[in-house]
Amino acid sequence: MQELHQMLNRHRKYIFSLLALYCIGWGVTEYKTIFLGLILGTSISLLNHWLMIKRISRFGDAVVAGQRVRTLGTFSRMAWAVFAVIIALELPDHFHFISVILGLMTSYIVIMIDFIIQSLIKRKNGEER
Prior knowledge:
Blueprint: H1 2-28, H2 32-65, H3 74-90, H4 97-104, H5 106-128
């Protein structure tokens, strides 16, 4: 489980960096609705990623203890995504809909990029030994 939490910490750093860039973009450019949409979607994406890691951790603990395994909370994560979409649809003057959708996918993109980086690092360390 330690690796899982290390991975979450790396992903959180990447996503917070992206959120900082989005905030700068919101403040500096005239594309305020696009950056607000990215901020909203990415924030919900980070929340869903954190919820998933938390549930996976509990899931692993329950399996080790031989207890009944609870769900991974798919419904609650979908509800958060629907909540972000509803906000974007209700407030189109503030949030760009497509940007919210792209923001919701941010954690998955970060996971894939981090996987590639970690694979390259492991391959490089394996070749040096």
